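Hi support team,

I submitted a single chain yesterday and got back a structure, but I'm not sure I'm reading the token output correctly. Could someone confirm the output below corresponds to the sequence I sent? I've pasted both exactly as they appear in my results page.

Thanks,
R.
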Amino acid sequence: KKVKAVALYLADLESMASAGLRVIVFARQKMGATVKIYVVAPQPIVQETIEVSGFSQAVTLLTAAEAGKVQ
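Hi R., thanks for writing in. Yes, this is the structure output for that exact sequence:
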């Protein structure tokens, strides 16, 4: 069975360095463009890092309340 989506629950993550961003890039490259990557409930500083770096174009950012949208 093929993976259709990956959800990263980041509510407890207090920061994200470049190594963390590389993991997201690596996941995107290995899984392909058809697999959706969800980042759920990131702390404001983590969300800012994802947005400033441009990675928000490769993932879907969701609040904790929106986590049910992960399919």
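A quick pointer for reading it: The mean pLDDT is 92. Let us know if anything else looks off.

Best,
Support desk
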